[in-house]
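// run 5 | inverse folding | seed 20
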């Protein structure tokens, strides 16, 4: 669907929807945690954004998806490395919204690393950029809330209060998430100040918001977290334990191991507050054992990440060295070129005098050249007029053939019809019936000639033949065999050899039957005894149906295999026919997207091989 959206937006010239299609595809890989495709698609989005001059989604793909993915996967070093690269890029392009995004990403990285000081500094830089350049950011109240929580972690209660007061007038009634983020921060602020009544009032307001706005359900863990802190503050440890267990249950679908460790530590803290030091020690022991293994793994991952970063930097250095080498080579070439031009200039000075002398002779010959140019222009004009006359004559010939063929066809149909009527009316009079049959046969031959001419004229102007109907191939081929049964000699047997019990294909029945009927009639005409066989097979590798029409007639010499497909050509001038049948068959096969050839290896008669695309029904 993303590829279709991209194709249609490119066709309509909608640049915004082109970017959206790239970003949606990135989201697909992002939510599947497909790192390889996230890296590839991020590059695709960034290239498209630069091409379409859209830096907003350029930095969204880089920070909001790639770096956020690294944060989720706890690849902190790679995330910091990418964030610093993004910061350098933003500063180079002087794009203030991207600078804000960059500081926000850095703050989130430090939050995950339990470094509230650096997180606080980067949240403050993010807010300063937004306010300084008056940027539109729907998450500004939430950024103030995050700044306040970092301030509380640093015991800077006054700074936290200042941040929350700035957030209040920015909250929009239509954005519940902003209200949730600020009120959650206020709960932690009141708990830090020891104002438990106001903290509980905020919690009740939060519960009311979650009941009114179902879309906040994904943030329910945040509500449980502040309730745990409140119950610990008021000494209701059983309720605090209940909330921790509630967090574990409600967050199961998306809970990471790091949340498990945090919950384990939180249980230890609650039991410690309850003076149950044995139980607290058990949870602390589980927490320490788990986090020790995690830290070991993180150290290993950090080493791997640093190794990858160093390899990338090494590749960059090698690339820069290569570019420097190329620049030196280009400078050397430039010097050689300059020297060449100096030498050339010297030679030019030497030759100038000679050219000056020859210039007089050239002026004398210019008059002769001008006269010849006039003659050439006149000749070219005559050629153009002759070409136009030839094209007009060709078009008139085509139109004339089509019109005359249609005019001739109407009376011929009448003649054929009346001859058939005479033959049936005078059925008892053998002589009259024979005359009527001769009229009918020759009229039919003439009608076939007219039809062939019309077909040639039509096919020359047609690019391809449409596949419009579904047929059952065995019945279709059997009907073709039955249509020639009346003209086959008595000593000749007809065989049909299908390769499938039943085969439904999409084709153009009229044109396909025209090819098969003509090839079968051709075989019947030149086969006095023996057999005529129609068979087909499937080439699944090339998605083709291969038809073979084989007879035991006199055959066609190998040196004439291509000759018989030329228009108005016949091997035997005394044989009835126009020489258009086989050329029409090959032309039809090519318009189908296939081919028609004679099998050179078959020596018992003649074998035509027709290859057509296999379009499954």
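// decoded
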């Amino acid at each position: 669907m993303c590829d279709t959206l991209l194709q249609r937006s490119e066709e309509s010239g909608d640049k915004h929807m082109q970017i959206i299609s790239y970003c949606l595809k990135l989201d697909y890989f992002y939510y599947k945690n497909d790192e390889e495709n996230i890296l590839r698609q991020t590059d695709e989005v960034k290239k498209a954004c630069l091409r379409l001059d859209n830096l907003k989604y350029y930095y969204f793909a880089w920070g909001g998806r790639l770096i956020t993915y690294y944060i989720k996967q706890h690849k902190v070093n790679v995330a910091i490395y990418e964030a610093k690269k993004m910061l350098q890029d933003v500063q180079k392009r002087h794009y203030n919204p991207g600078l804000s995004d960059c500081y926000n990403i850095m703050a989130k990285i430090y939050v995950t690393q339990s470094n509230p000081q650096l997180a606080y500094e980067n949240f403050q830089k993010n807010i300063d950029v937004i306010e300084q350049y008056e940027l539109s950011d729907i998450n500004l109240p939430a950024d103030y809330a995050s700044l306040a929580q970092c301030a509380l972690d640093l015991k800077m209660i006054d700074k936290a209060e200042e941040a929350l007061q700035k957030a209040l007038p920015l909250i929009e009634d239509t954005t519940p998430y902003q209200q949730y983020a600020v009120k959650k921060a206020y709960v932690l602020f009141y708990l830090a100040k020891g104002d438990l009544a106001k903290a509980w009032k905020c919690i009740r307001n939060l519960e009311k918001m979650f009941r009114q706005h179902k879309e906040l359900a994904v943030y329910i863990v945040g509500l449980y977290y502040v309730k745990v802190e409140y119950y610990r503050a008021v000494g209701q440890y059983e309720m605090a334990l209940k909330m921790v267990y509630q967090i574990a249950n409600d967050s199961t679908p998306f809970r990471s191991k790091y949340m498990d460790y945090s919950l384990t530590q939180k249980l230890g803290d609650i039991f410690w507050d309850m003076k149950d030091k044995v139980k607290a020690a058990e949870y602390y022991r589980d927490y320490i054992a788990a986090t020790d293994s995690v830290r070991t793994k993180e150290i290993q991952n950090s080493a791997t990440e640093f190794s990858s970063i160093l390899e990338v930097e090494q590749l960059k250095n090698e690339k820069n060295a290569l570019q420097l080498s190329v620049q030196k080579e280009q400078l050397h070439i430039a010097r050689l070129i300059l020297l060449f031009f100096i030498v050339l200039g010297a030679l030019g000075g030497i030759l100038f005098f000679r050219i000056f002398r020859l210039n007089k002779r050239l002026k004398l010959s210019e008059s002769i050249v001008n006269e010849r140019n006039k003659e050439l222009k006149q000749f070219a004009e005559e050629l153009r007029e002759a070409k136009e006359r030839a094209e007009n004559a060709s078009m008139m010939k085509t139109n004339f053939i089509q019109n005359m063929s249609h005019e001739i066809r109407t009376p011929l149909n009448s003649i054929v019809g009346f001859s058939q009527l005479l033959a049936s009316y005078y059925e008892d009079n053998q002589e009259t019936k024979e005359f009527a049959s001769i009229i009918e046969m020759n009229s039919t031959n003439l009608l076939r000639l007219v039809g062939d001419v019309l077909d040639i004229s039509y096919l020359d102007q047609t690019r391809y033949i449409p596949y419009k109907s579904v047929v059952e191939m065995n019945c279709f081929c059997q009907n073709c065999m039955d249509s020639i049964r009346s003209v086959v000699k008595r000593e000749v047997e007809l065989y049909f050899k299908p390769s499938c019990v039943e085969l439904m294909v999409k084709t153009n029945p009229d044109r396909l039957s025209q090819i098969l009927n003509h090839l079968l009639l051709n075989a019947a005409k030149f086969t006095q005894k023996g057999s005529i066989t129609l068979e087909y097979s499937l080439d699944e590798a090339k998605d083709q149906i291969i038809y073979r029409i084989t007879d035991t007639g006199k055959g066609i010499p190998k040196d004439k295999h291509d000759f018989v497909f030329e228009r108005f050509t016949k091997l035997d001038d005394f044989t009835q026919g126009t020489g258009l049948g086989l050329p029409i068959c090959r032309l039809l096969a090519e318009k189908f997207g296939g081919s028609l050839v004679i099998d050179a290896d078959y020596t018992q008669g003649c074998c035509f091989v027709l290859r057509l695309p296999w379009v499954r029904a």
